[in-house]
Amino acid sequence: MSGDKKSVAIVDDDEALLEATSAFLESMGYDTLPFSSGREFLAYDNLDFVSLLLTDINMPEMTGLELLEVVRKRWPDMPIIMMTALKDEVIRRRAIAGGARELLQKPILADDLIRCIEQA
Q1: In tens digits, what is the pLDDT along the chain, a chain of 120 residues?
Q2: Residue 55 — φ and ψ, nearest 5°?
């Protein structure tokens, strides 16, 4: 992380979306750390320097909700924004109850993403 930049970790198994989101946030002045799975994110050595986690919900091996639970236990103060293509109020309630700041609907509008990151 350089200077006052926020370091945003992005976890998504969709490689194209992961690259696009990372490139967009970098163009907006954020440092990004892209990960293709929750396990890859958790194996990263410098998670204490992550300012915010942006994660998909629907992923193989470890879902975003499972990742949310682990992150809340290990780094209780880390802001988490979740994203999904599913329109399911039960998932939204579970994400928010589990400690996510927001659950964004894919495709995510750029303004919504930046607003959520700035509020976190």
Answers
A1: 344 568 999 999 999 999 999 999 999 999 999 999 999 999 999 898 899 999 999 999 999 999 999 999 999 999 999 999 988 899 999 999 999 999 999 999 999 999 999 998
A2: -135, 145
Interhelix angle for 15-27 vs 110-119, to 10°? Answer: 70
Which two structure tokens, joined as six digits, stand for 64? 């975003």
As a three-state string, the secondary structure of the chain is: CCCCCCEEEEECCCHHHHHHHHHHHHHCCCEEEEECCHHHHHHCCCHHHCCEEEEECCCCCCCHHHHHHHHHHHCCCCCEEEEECCCCHHHHHHHHHCCCCEEEECCCCHHHHHHHHHHC
